[in-house]
Amino acid sequence: MLARYFSPLALLFICTFGCGLDLNAQSHQANSSTHGNPSPPTPMLKTSQDIPEIPDIVMGSAEAPVVLIEYSCVNCTHCAHYHQQFHPVLKQRFIQSNKVQLIFKYFPLDYQSVEYMAVIASQPYARWYALYETALEHQKKWLGKPPKVLAKVLNISPKECESALQNDVLKKNIMAKRFNAEKRIQIDATPTFVILYRDQGDLKWE
C-alpha cells in the first residue's frame, strides 16, 4: 500500500468530497494528487524496533474508515496556521462524525521544540491535546522565548515547568518521536499528513 501526503487545504478538499463516497474512489483520487514521485511505504504505526517514545494522541472512532496521521511541531508557524484555520472544520465535520480517526504524532524540529513539548507532556495525558492547541493559538506570545513563557501561557506552574525541563527521560522520549518517524517516511516539513484506509489494509502493526 502507498501512503498519501497532502497540504492542509488539499486534505480538507479530500475529506469534504471523499468521505461518504466509495473509499476505493478516494484512493484513486489520493494517488493522483501526489507529486509524481513514488510514495514511500505506508508507515507502520508501531514496530518492535521503535525507541521508547511518548504516546500518540488519538481522536475519533477506532471504526472510522479513514485514518489521518498528522506530524506536527508546537513551534512551527505553519502548524499553528493549520490548527487555527483548517483543523476545527476537520474536527467538527469528520472526526466527531466518526468518518475520520486522527492519530497525532509529535515531530520535534529542534531542541527547543523538545523542551516546549516537555512542558506540555508534564501534564496529565488527557490534557495534552488541549494544551497543544492552546499553545498554537497563542504561539506569538511565547515563540522563541524560554519554555517558562509557554508554561505561563498554559497556566503551568514554574515548578512543574522546571521539573519537566530536568526530566531527561521525558525529553529523550520526545526526541524519539522524530527518530521513529524518520525510520518510516521522509518528513521535510510540518505539518505533514498521511491518509490511510482501513478497508484497503493500510493499517499494519508489527
What would you say this structure looks like, in words?
By secondary structure, this protein is α+β, with helices and mostly antiparallel strands. The protein is built from ten helices and five strands; from the N terminus they run βααββααβααααααβ. The protein has helices spanning 8-18, 23-31, 77-85, 87-95, 111-121, 128-137, 139-142, 147-153, 158-165, 168-182, and strands at residues 4-5, 57-59, 66-72, 100-106, 192-197. The protein has a five-stranded mixed beta sheet. α5 packs parallel to α8 (147-153) and α5 crosses α9. The longest helix is centred in the last third of the chain and has 15 residues, at 168-182. It is globular. The chain starts with a strand and ends in a 9-residue tail after the last strand. Mean pLDDT is 80; it is low at 1-7 and 12-44.
Task: Compile the SSE list and pairings.
Blueprint: E1 4-5, H1 8-18, H2 23-31, E2 57-59, E3 66-72, H3 77-85, H4 87-95, E4 100-106, H5 111-121, H6 128-137, H7 139-142, H8 147-153, H9 158-165, H10 168-182, E5 192-197
Parallel strand pairs: 3-4
Antiparallel strand pairs: 1-5, 2-4, 3-5
Helix pairs in contact: 5-8, 5-9, 5-10, 8-9
Query: In order across it, which strands form the biggest sheet?
Result: 1-5-3-4-2
Question: Spans with pLDDT under 50 lasting ≥5 residues?
Answer: 1-7, 12-44
Shape: globular
In round numbers, the mean pLDDT is 80
With helices defined by DSSP (H or I, 4 residues minimum), what is the helix count?
A: 10
Structure summary, number of beta strands = 5
Please give the radius of gyration in angstroms: 17 Å
Percent range for β-strand residues: 5-15%
Structural class: alpha+beta
